[in-house]
Amino acid sequence: MKKYFILLCLFTATVFVANAQLLPTFQFGVKAGLNFSNLKSDEGNYFDASTRTGYQAGVWARIGGAGVHFQPELYITGKSSEAKLVNRDEEGKVTFTSLDLPLLLGTRIGFGPAGLRIVAGPVVSFVVDKNIGEALRQVPEFSEYKNQAWAVTGGLGLDISNFRADVRYEHGLSELSKNDSAPQKVNLWTVGIGYRLF
Question: pTM for the full model?
Fold first, then answer.
């Protein structure tokens, strides 16, 4: 009898957790983190760029059910790279401050307060400020940058109670330079920590 009672409890708990995964849910929270960005020249003959550390801070939401969720985010991001002109001694720092809007689809593996997430989706960035080093500003290829860019991102996340942690890679799709002869894109890794408010 005791064995059947334990089996019944386990069955009930399994059904309850499964239904909880299927029911629509809404979450909202805050997020902050670091990024490691690199300004990439596809042609490879204009400059060499090194990775530099930036920041991000903002909010996220998650709406989902049936094991799949939609996760829009909005945060301010500082991206930078150290660029050196090929065959010249000039080098300088290129910094972008942008408002980033990732629109992610994901799934969660795990039950209860802990789980692993997989997410991927597009990111649109609106440049709100840019700072180009003096040496680079005098070069035509670096004179003008677009104010909007597209990228794709994907990565892994970990949920532990109300805390969230994410590691993602973002690959730039849009050319940032208005000069077609000097194509430039930003690629970056991000590491973020978040907290669910409700």
Answer: 0.78
